[in-house]
Amino acid sequence: MSDARRIEPPESEVAKPFWDATREQRLVLQWCTDCGNAIFYPREVCPSCLRADGLEWRDASGRGEVYAVSVQHAAQVPMPAYETPYAVAVVELEEGVRMLSTIVGTDPEAVVVGQAVTVAWEPLSDGRNLPMFQPS
Fold first, then answer.
1. Is the pLDDT of residue 35 over 80?
2. How far apart are alpha carbons 128 and 31 in whole angstroms?
3. Helices (H), 7-118
4. Which residues contact 47 (CB under 8 A, 6 or more apart)?
5. Cα 6 off chain centre by
6. CA dist 132 to 25, 50, 113, 120, Å?
7. 85: preceding bond cis by omega (within 30 degrees)
8. DSSP string over 85-125
9. In terms of Cα–Cα distance, which of 86, 92, 58 is closest to 72?
10. What pLDDT digit, counting tens, does each position of 39-85 carry?
11. What is the DSSP string of 14-37?
12. Which residues contact 122 (CB under 8 A, 6 or more apart)?
């Protein structure tokens, strides 16, 4: 039985470049070369123009702002990664995509909409790193 403190996300073939980059603590996003949109979560086709052959991976800035936040006072899964309470937020990256993540490095009650954040990393058991966000 693993002593991991979190349920680790599975790695799919389409998301492999994303997870490979996290091993180097780099945040990457898919971009559609046809319509110019950034894409997150990893997909097989562009959700805007439905092209499958124009997707490429590019480094992201790792900077964004809190779009929405909820402070969790009870663990939502059997293996919580953090002691409660903790802040779960939708972060809008500079590139225009939104990611659901945890805000770390601050009092969860202090996290507010519009707050500037930067990517932080939590190591996973297989060498990947999970992107989190912390106040800038």
1. yes
2. 22
3. 16-22
4. 39
5. 15
6. 11, 29, 16, 5
7. yes
8. SEEEEEEEETTS-EEEEEE-SS-GGG--TT-EEEEEEEE-T
9. 86
10. 999 999 999 999 989 999 999 999 999 999 999 988 766 655 567 89
11. TTHHHHHHHTTT--EEEEETTT--
12. 6, 81, 104, 129, 130, 132
Three-class DSSP category at 69: strand
Burial class of 26 by CB neighbour count within 10 A (0 to 12, 13 to 18, 19+): middle
At 68, list the tokens. 């929405």
CA distance 44 to 14: 7
State the Cα–Cα distance between residues 124 and 80, nearest whole angstrom. 14
Question: DSSP code of 8?
Answer: P
Q: Residues 102, 133: contact at Cβ < 8 Å?
A: yes
Tokens standing for 62?
Answer: 């790792």
Structure tokens at 78: 């059997």
Is 78:25 a contact under the CB 8 Å cutoff? no
Written as six digits, the tokens of 117 are 């954040």
Residues 32 and 55: beta-carbon distance below 8 Å:
yes
DSSP state of 110: G
* Per-residue tokens: 46: 């562009």
